[in-house]
Amino acid sequence: xxxxxxxxxxxxxxxxxxxxxxxxxxxxxxxIVVNYITACISGVLSYDSPVNIxxxxxxxxxxxxxxxxxxxxxxxxxxxxTAQRNGLSVASVASKMSVIIPVxxxxxxxxxxxxxxxxxxIVLALVAVYLTxxxxxxxxxxRKGLLFPFLLFFGSGVIDxxxxxxxxxxxxxxxIPIFSATIFLCATGIGIVILxxxxxxxxxxxxxxxxxGGAILGVVNYYSIFFLLKALQFExxxxxxxxxxxxxxxxxxxxLLGLALFKEHLSKKxxxxxxxxxxxxxxxxxA
Length: 287
What we know:
The protein is mainly alpha-helical. The chain has helices at residues 2-23, 28-46, 53-58, 62-86, 88-96, 100-109, 116-133, 142-169, 176-201, 208-232, 239-262, 268-286. 51% of the residues are buried.
């Protein structure tokens, strides 16, 4: 249970850092690339065996780690944009409500049951993302208002599903640190290529503030994944329960911190969406 609590705290801290990046004018892309370099180093340092490159490349999870690296940097950028443009509550609900995607995956792949209660929870989750994201403005834009949250919702769900599948099928218990480090290294490579292309076009400016912010984010990001994987290995809790408790807690804490620290405004529809998010996750868990 301690690993689950630590994962919740680390995941919530990621949203807070993204919001602070916007406030202190930190280059988000540069910080994210540095974040993955730091996270990769953290994973290697946490690995208690010699690092064998050929063994890593020949591992059955290696191709999956490359694809996850691409997803990680894409969704992380999307998470930052959503937190900065739409607020902490929207970003946390959109990413954490994606728990329904691995639940649906489990129904088809692991032959888990789909009762009426779980089905209601899934439908409520989709409605919750919409209600939390929508803003009461006359000049409402789909791209700014709903596109980012829904892409974040889908992408986060694919990541959670992929991590669970690879972790349970191919990754050994002591291989979690190097598995995580490999994902982060792949994300780093993709990020460096993007920064290089931006530098060629003259759209990139290096600054030490972004590097420091990225280093802090990297440590937090690595341990959010590490603690979640550790929690998933706890036999007394099913994976759907772990994901659900984690996601509900992050939504609630992120929303409260958004109100307290950043004075975010939530309409009645937004509050209804958050309430429905919590109810839907509980329905899925208790089912």
